[in-house]
Amino acid sequence: MRDLLLQCSGAAAIVLALIHGMLGETKVFARASIEPPRLRTLIRLVWQAGTVAWIGGGVLLLAAPWMESSLARHWIIVTLAIVFGFAALANAWATRGRHFGWLGMSAVVALAVAGY
């Protein structure tokens, strides 16, 4: 059961990352006017770097049950719980709780910790 919880955490992390990337491109950068254009490209790429990192974290959470090392499982869960936990707190604080992202990221943390 704990492996299933951990895999659900990884799948949720990947879905949230894809939503993050899509909303960034369609909602944030579609309306933003950032000058010079080079800076706009840099900010867009940094935004998507977070998306790629969260997908990578989701893949690690999905793969952790098949790893033969309990130490690797431990550190994957601890590290990604901190990463997604910080992101959830930052999102909740910055949006005053009005954006659904913090709930999704909190769910990733809860599922990962439950799968520990």
How is this structure best described in words?
With 116 residues, the chain is an all-alpha fold. It has one domain. The chain is 83% helix and 0% strand. The protein is built from four helices and no strands. The chain has helices at residues 2-31, 37-63, 70-94, 101-114. Helix 3 (70-94) runs antiparallel to helix 4 (101-114). The radius of gyration is 15 Å and the shape is elongated. The relative contact order is 0.19. The model has no long low-confidence stretch (mean pLDDT 93).
Distinct helical segment count: 4
Q: Which blocks of ≥5 consecutive residues have pLDDT under 50?
A: none
Topology, number of strands: 0
Question: SSE order, as H and E?
Answer: HHHH
Helix content: over 70%
The number of domains: 1
Which shape, going by the Cα principal axes? elongated
Biggest β-sheet strands, sense, barrel: none
β-sheet strand percentage: under 5%
Q: Helix/strand/pairing class, anyone? A: mainly alpha
What brief labels describe this structure?
single chain, about 120 residues, mainly alpha, about 0% strand
Give a nutshell description of this structure:
This protein has helices spanning 2-31, 37-63, 70-94, 101-114.
